[in-house]
Amino acid sequence: MSEKKSSSIAGKSFFCLLLTTTMLFMLSWSFVLRSTVHASFFDRKLLPTGKLGTVINNGDSESSGKSNIESSNGSSRTILANNERESEEGDEHTKREEGFQDRDGAMNCNGNVKELLKIFMYDLDPEFHFGLLDWKPQGGSVWPDVRTKIPSYPGGLNLQHSIEYWLTLDLLASEISDNPNNRVAIRVQNSSEADLVFVPFFSSLSYNRFSKVNPHQKRSRNKVLQAKLVKFVAAQKEWKRSGGRDHIIMAHHPNSMLNARMQLWPAIFVLADFGRYPLNIANVDKDVIAPYKHVIKSYVNDTSDFDRRKTLLFFQGAIYRKDGGHARQELYYLLRHEKDVHFSFGSVQKNGVNKASQGMHSSKFCLNIAGDTPSSNRLFDAIASHCVPVIISDEIELPYEDVLDYSEFCIFVRTSDAVKEKFLINLIRSIKKEEWTRMWMKLKEVEPLFEFQYPSKEGDAVQMIWKSLAHKVPSIKMKVNKSRRYAHSVPRKQRGLRTIAAPNNFW
Predict the structure, then answer these.
(1) What are phi and psi of 351, to 5 degrees?
(2) What one-character DSSP code corresponds to residue 405?
(3) In angstroms, rounded to a whole number, what is the distance separating the alpha carbons of residues 282 and 289?
């Protein structure tokens, strides 16, 4: 009995000794590992914190329970602002939260830093820009003094393609602005500092005013200017450096730059649509779609509602069109006798703009049907009128669609469906007051995004176009860098720009 007892005690003692030895062994190894691991192997800053972060992206703020970093304007520009200050004195982040302005950035009202898009603009001869408006240079400067008097732009239908005018004015104003917080883009004098290169040719105005050949001319002034522009731009070091990929060419009128576009195709085109461009010359990946400037009057202090707008569906414009505009004629015959529908021919002649303004302001829905090209100014007239657009254009491309959901304030109908008897009118009549009111309120909310003005304001059309251009910068830089991979291995005599022949079936 005593032998069993002593055996049991010995077993327990052995177990305790083994357990103690094992624990000491593990603790010693833990100490060794901690003392030998590099101090930077684990960064406690990588741990999530409870601090509330605000991400500023395209003018919108989103709160998040963790520290988020998102791209601003679709580029590598990153903006992170914290709502909560660090409690420790001397913390550098606290100073940043209180607001500052650095070399390349501007500070917004909350102290959040936004990096500006840097634009180098060629000092072209006035014959390419404000000289087309009959402005005469003074004092040896090629630019007007925007602090005193700004050359006016012709009215009427000329205004709808005036994008080049507004963007150029905005760059000139950036040089004299004391408040960079209200800007998206600034002009820089050193092209090596620039994100993009701006070519200030008023191409739409040139086409509208000078595309006809006068009796004493062999070529129109518009064609002469395009040829001179191509010669000038192709000779610049900035074009040669990037192959033209970072250049901005404005060709908003569908018929503008007809000759030069085939030679300047590597650049970013600012267009109304791609209707008259082959895919290898212009496309949504390379280029930017900009809105038309609306021609009708804005509906200021709009207090109308579903019941006060007596006209159900409105269209006024050219009915017989070529290319993709055949649907206008078919819809005219389908809708002309429908109750509460206004579908008639109209133009800017004989007080046509005022009549269109009154009609759109008193209508619930406004038709935007493809004409000679997929887009038209009618869509932006409808937005300015808070008249819900009904878009019948299968090939249309829309401005800012990467950040704007048009289905929230527009009705889209396929052309093949729209021309079916009773299809369109039944669809429109099925939209009830509540749904229409929701879209009407959204129209009033997004309207400022399509307003052109000088000076530009936060979130207007000018600044939205700059943001759209900023989206292109990262991919452009990648393409330019990739094109330089074998620069050192190519014999000097063989170096140069690679050109691609224009398509034979362009027209």
Answers:
(1) 65, 30
(2) -
(3) 11
| pLDDT of 50 strictly over 50 | no
Exposure letters 70-90 (e unless 16+ CB within 10 A, then b): eebbbbebebbbbeeeeeeee
C-beta of residue 306 within 8 angstroms of C-beta of residue 388: no
The more confident residue out of 498 and 163 is 163
Query: In whole angstroms, how far apart are CA 182 and each of 186, 361, 381, 464?
Result: 11, 31, 26, 13
pLDDT surpasses 90 at 23? no
Q: Which of 13-27, 66-80, 221-235, 325-339 has the lowest mean pLDDT?
A: 66-80
For residues 191 and 280, the answer to whether their CB atoms sit within 8 Å is no
* CA–CA dist 74, 450 (Å, integer): 20
DSSP state at residue 40: G
Peptide bond into 48 cis (omega under 30): no
- Return the beta strands (E) in 379-443 as ranges: 388-392, 411-412
Name which residue leads in pLDDT, 222 or 78.
Answer: 222
The pLDDT assigned to 429 comes to: 97
Non-local CB neighbours of 258 within 8 Å, separated by 6+ positions? 226
Residues in Cβ contact with 271 at an 8 Å cutoff, skipping those fewer than 6 apart? 251, 252, 277, 282, 287, 288, 289, 290
Tokens 């900023």 -> residue: 470
